[in-house]
């Protein structure tokens, strides 16, 4: 057994069984060792940002980490943006970063770089296995660390000689950490404050937005506590049978207008809401003036337990409100908008679907119809780094091969990690990709006004518009082996989407707006 | 004038006139300010790795920095791999990284991250302009720092409020540093050592590989000093009229076999040659045992001056050997290989062409015929992070609009930054893209054996092969607005390439191997 064998065997022993990889020379021992451990599924991505985004999608759905295999500093670098999103989603991921042999580092060969510094901003744990006998233990430590709580990406650096030299490697089992229930005092304080408040709200985020947490939060709604979620949530149920909390608005002034008069804000699994960006003369904090704030459940604690305890303390009913199923009767027709697309999606999306949402300005149209659609789950863009919608869908589909996965993308978003289409084709994943093709960074046209930057002139417009030439996503998809169709109106989309739901396997729909 | 105006005006005053950009909300003031300074050319890239690679290509050809415009930590992250290459090429680049407003940072909004740490490994200078009045001065400081010598990427972090607030901004002119000539003692020592040596070589790299340095190095060759270059060179002339030094072989054992008996190695503009990767039981240092080593010119010194002084001290003739023009007479025909492609390229490539080389295992075939082709220049992959061939060509074409640019790419390499095709189409750049489509990471199949990792089984092969499905680059190119053609044999490539050279504007040729 060499170090690479020890690594993979330890991963598998700890239920890490998917590897999203883009290897290079320094990772060849790891690649070879995969043949000895068929329980580890290797998935090739032709760009590391696809691999890290896929690991995020996998981790959100599986509740357990996937690993990535990345090629030294530059390979990790390509994965940084989606690891930023994963850090903000608190998703467990074990990044394995190949490095030069320990004795070779000092020569500063062309691919050498300061990996330890590069991984620091997006790793909740990072170590280098500088001798082969440390590999198994550090791998187990890495897996355990990735769970947090609240969890996140970890970085295990694997020098080439630690991979190729003989290693002691009896698989080491990592202890999965247990989330503690919040302190009784926090529950009592929250209950007292609610009773004293005129207009209390609870803001849930992170683990509190999983099915169980949402169910308990609904009980609070039933006793007059308005439930809000963070704007961008790693994973949450939506549609019939689920409670539909309000969502914190993206634009700060709208959020504050909606929260007017709120005198108590309680946090469960999240912290103070803040504006996504700063703007001249607009507030950063999205808490109304004079509003009292309290933390019921810290991010690393057991959100559902905390919400249940608070609901009990308030004498809430055992069951809160839920959404009834209400699908649009008529097929949408005529001019295509995000709302007609949302209606078609709601009409045909099967129960249990997973929606990976990187649709930016088109998202509201989908959410509207989704609220009363068949039960499904939504994975959102937690860190603001667009380009996650396609990779996230790969990971979700690998984690849940029996569920339909929808990947919703702005055209600008999709281009960041367009190589993901090839992996969907190779792995024959059951993913339907929708591209909202509006040929512009529409959000930036809005933000341009909001930041007070003024009217866009010719130079500015060159950086906001995606046309000239318009991208043909159908051609790109076919180039990567994916069936694809473009839809110019609502009727065409309805037909194409219904067809995609009726079959298994990957396909792409370009929805022209 | 606000901070964004001050920034752009200072850049332009310092001859930074191209901006490769992928902006977001925090960069809207910069985008708006571009309209006031038409001397700055904005080039939109739909992925930041394209922007940084393009800035590298621009800097190598212009000899002056371009700027990039990147969106917080994740935007910079996407650009890391090609900035790693640029650092290894010592290319001046001014990265402008938008950040949250200074007062907003503390709220840790979703896009917040530790930018200062993230940029450190690939920045030779990094500062944040935390007040608007510092912007102009720091911009000038950034430009100056990017020149080194020996130069490299710098990172100027621009918080949104520093961009939008009023700023003092009389453009500040940066001092361009002058490279000092090497000390006379270093020249004398080298001359003495050469006279005493049996088999002396000089290894040139970096600035020594520009036209003037190569010319002076040829004079050393004329007096019996064998001239080698580093394996991967940022920029160097090739073809008729240039001296053709030997190149350090990529594989260490081959390099050492070729260097057998060498008893003196003199460095000019570079340092000790090392193996690209470590392998079990193979050397890291590529200097023969017992060989004396001396540094004639440090990387930051004036290489041509040092080489000229050494040639004078040795009484070398004023002119060394150069290559005669020798083009393949016959059009290649039949089965297509890297050598038939190289022959077609040599036959039709015009004088002054710029070859951006990310062709990995296909490169040798091109280099063979290129050595006696019409005079051209080659930009190589300096840092080993594949995915630079397409972006590099964008930058070279923007810097030298009157020269034909060739972008040579392995299929695996091309996929990393495939979004670059769209920018070539939008800017109507005179770039001919060649994709060597062998449907595998061929280099990794070779490296798998060399690392002793053994025969690839089914899992390993899944990570080495790029087929299943084969990528259709013609479809992808058309999807991004580029004319494209696929060639299955040498005859078809000859026709397609001759056609591409006879016209202006971007096109792609998929060469099936």
Describe, in plain words, how this protein is organized in 3D:
2 copies of one chain form a homodimer. By secondary structure, chain A is α/β, with parallel strands linked by helices. Chain A folds into 3 domains: 3-164, Rossmann fold (3-Layer(aba) Sandwich); 184-313, TPP-binding domain (Rossmann fold), CATH 3.40.50.1220; 338-512, 3-Layer(aba) Sandwich (Rossmann fold). Chain A contains 21 helices and 18 strands. Chain A has helices at 3-13, 28-34, 48-62, 72-78, 80-89, 115-119, 135-146, 160-164, 184-196, 211-222, 252-258, 303-313, 338-348, 363-370, 389-399, 411-416, 420-426, 442-450, 458-464, 473-479, 490-502; strands spanning 18-21, 41-44, 66-71, 93-99, 125-128, 153-159, 200-204, 226-229, 236-238, 246-247, 264-268, 292-297, 353-358, 376-380, 405-410, 431-437, 484-487, 507-512. In chain A, the strands form 3 sheets. In chain A, strands 9-14-13-15-16-18-17 form a 7-stranded mixed sheet, with helices on both faces. In chain A, β1, α2 and β2 (41-44) form a beta-alpha-beta unit. In chain A, α1 (3-13) packs across α2 (28-34), α13 runs parallel beside α14 and α13 packs parallel to α21 (490-502). Chain A starts with a helix and ends with a strand. At the A-B interface, α2, α4, α5, α6 and α8 of A face α2, α4, α5, α6 and α8 of B.
**What is the averaged pLDDT score of chain A?**
96
Number of helices of chain A: 21
Number of domains of chain A: 3
- Share in helix of chain A: 25-40%
Q: What is the 3D form of chain A?
A: globular
What kind of assembly state do the chains in view correspond to? Answer: homodimer
Low-confidence stretches of chain A: none
Distance between the termini of chain A: 56 Å
User: Could you name the CATH topology of the largest domain in chain A?
Assistant: Rossmann fold
Number of strands of chain A: 18
Task: Note the beta-strand portion of chain A.
Answer: 15-25%
Q: How would a textbook summarize the main sheet of chain A?
A: 7 strands, mixed
Strand order of the largest sheet of chain A: 9-14-13-15-16-18-17
CATH architecture of the largest domain in chain A: 3-Layer(aba) Sandwich
> What is the CATH top level name of the largest domain in chain A?
Alpha Beta
Radius of gyration of chain A over all CA atoms, rounded = 23 Å
The helix-and-strand class of chain A reads: alpha/beta
Largest interface: A-B, 105 and 105 residues
């Amino acid at each position: 057994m060499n170090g690479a064998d020890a690594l993979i065997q330890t991963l598998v022993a700890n239920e890490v069984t998917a590897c999203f990889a883009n290897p290079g020379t320094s990772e060849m021992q790891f690649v070879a060792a995969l043949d000895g451990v068929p329980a580890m599924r290797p998935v090739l991505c032709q760009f590391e940002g696809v691999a890290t985004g896929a690991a995020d999608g996998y981790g959100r759905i599986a509740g357990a980490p996937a690993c990535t295999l990345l090629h030294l500093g530059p390979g990790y670098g390509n994965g940084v943006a989606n690891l930023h999103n994963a850090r903000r989603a608190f998703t467990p991921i074990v990044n394995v970063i190949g490095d030069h042999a320990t004795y070779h580092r000092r020569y500063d060969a062309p691919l050498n770089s300061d990996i330890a510094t590069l991984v620091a901003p997006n790793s909740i744990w990072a170590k280098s296995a500088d001798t082969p006998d440390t590999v198994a233990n550090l791998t187990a430590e890495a897996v355990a660390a990735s769970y947090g709580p609240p969890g996140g990406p970890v970085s295990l650096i694997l020098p080439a000689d630690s991979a190729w030299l003989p290693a002691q490697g009896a698989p080491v089992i990592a202890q999965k950490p247990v989330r503690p229930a919040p302190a009784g005092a926090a529950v009592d304080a929250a209950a007292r404050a609610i009773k004293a408040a005129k207009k209390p709200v609870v803001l849930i985020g992170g683990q509190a937005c999983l099915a169980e947490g949402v169910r308990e939060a609904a009980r609070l709604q039933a006793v007059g506590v308005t439930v809000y979620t963070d704007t961008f949530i790693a994973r949450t149920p939506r549609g019939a049978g689920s409670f539909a909390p309000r969502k914190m608005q993206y634009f700060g002034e709208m959020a504050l207008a909606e929260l007017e008069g709120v005198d108590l804000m309680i946090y469960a699994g999240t912290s103070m809401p803040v504006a996504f960006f700063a703007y001249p003369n607009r507030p950063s904090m999205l808490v109304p003036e004079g509003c009292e704030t309290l933390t019921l459940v810290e991010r690393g604690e057991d959100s559902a337990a905390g919400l249940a305890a608070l609901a009990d303390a308030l004498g809430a009913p055992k069951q809160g409100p839920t959404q009834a199923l209400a699908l649009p009767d008529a097929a949408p027709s005529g001019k295509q908008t995000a709302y007609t697309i949302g209606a078609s999606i709601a009409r045909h999306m099967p129960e249990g679907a997973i929606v990976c949402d990187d649709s930016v300005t088109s998202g509201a149209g989908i959410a509207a119809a989704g609220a009363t659609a068949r039960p499904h789950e939504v994975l959102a863009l937690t860190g603001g780094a667009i380009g996650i919608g396609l990779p996230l869908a790969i990971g979700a589909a690998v984690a849940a091969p029996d569920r339909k996965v929808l990947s919703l993308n702005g055209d600008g978003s999709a281009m960041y990690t367009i190589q993901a289409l090839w992996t969907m084709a190779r792995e024959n994943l059951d993913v339907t990709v929708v591209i909202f093709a509006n040929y512009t960074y529409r959000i930036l046209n809005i933000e341009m006004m909001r930041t007070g930057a003024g009217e866009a002139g010719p130079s500015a417009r060159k950086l906001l518009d995606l046309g000239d030439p318009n991208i043909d996503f159908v051609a790109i998809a076919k180039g990567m082996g994916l069936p694809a169709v473009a839809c110019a109106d609502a009727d065409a989309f309805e037909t194409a989407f219904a067809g995609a739901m009726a079959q298994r396997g990957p396909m792409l729909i370009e929805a022209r707006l």
